[in-house]
Amino acid sequence: MFAFDEKVVLITGAGAGIGAETAHAFAKAGASVMLNSVSGSAESRAKEIEKQGFPACFIQGDVSVEHDARHIVAKTIEQFGKLDILVNCAGVVCGGNVEETDLETWNRVMSVNATGTFLVSKYAMPYLRESHGVIVNIASLVAVKGVANRAAYSASKGAVLALTKAMAADHLKDGVRINCISPGTVLSPSLEGRIAEETDPETAYRGYVARQPMGRLGRPEEIAAAVLFAASEDVAFMDGVNIPVDGAGSL
């Protein structure tokens, strides 16, 4: 779909779901990819990509920890010599309204989703300035639309969206573009796990589907395609934009 030959892409949260599919998509489009995850889950994804004949590497680290965020970027530069595209995909989801959400959960969600996006972007920016690169942040439909039982998650993704626009304004003259993708509900391994934990998984699944006007859940590869679009030089006139890929959920 898009060509990324000789580009180096760093993807956080690449162990499964949207992040993993995005890594595969960039690799197939010609890029060298660095896959990050807080556990070792992205290592097998990197090996899969390598077996397909594409350059890929794995770096473990927690994006919410400043030392780790700095190391993730440094390892990418050490391995590939530059950085052209950063995809901030690492994230955690929790349920609950403000009364039900304890402070520890609130802090964890904000630290990974919002602070993690800030930290990796912070340490990637000097290299992206050199390459006139791109950041694509993964926000969510909940950043622009109220969804029940998602107080902390909504706040964190609203922060990601606002940070996207702030960074785009700050770094416009540096030649670094920053855009944002806001998915609706996507059938990822994370969601499948949460559904399986419900008392009635079938009813829970139908509830998630019912929130989507299209009558189905999104697929990780659909979000990955939007990420490649936002990162492509073919749309270099697009900056500071939020792209909803949400099954018409924001209508």
Written description of the protein model:
It is a single chain. A 7-stranded parallel β-sheet has the order 3-2-1-4-5-6-7, with helices on both faces. 47% of the residues lie in helices and 14% in strands. Strand 1, helix 1 and strand 2 form a beta-alpha-beta unit. It has helices at 17-28, 41-51, 66-80, 103-131, 151-170, 189-196, 201-210, 220-231; strands at residues 8-11, 32-37, 56-60, 85-88, 134-138, 177-183, 242-245. Helix 1 packs across helix 8, helix 3 packs parallel to helix 4 and helix 4 packs parallel to helix 5. The chain is of the alpha/beta class. The radius of gyration is 17 Å and the shape is globular. The protein contains 8 helices and 7 strands.
Order of helices and strands: EHEHEHEHEHEHHHE
**Structural class given helices, strands, pairing?**
alpha/beta
Bulk shape: globular
Output the radius of gyration.
17 Å
The average pLDDT value, as a whole number, equals 96
Q: What amount of the residues lies in strands?
A: 5-15%
Number of strands: 7
How many helices in DSSP terms? 8
Helix content: 40-55%
Largest sheet: 7 strands, parallel
- Poorly predicted sequence stretches spanning 5 or more consecutive residues: none
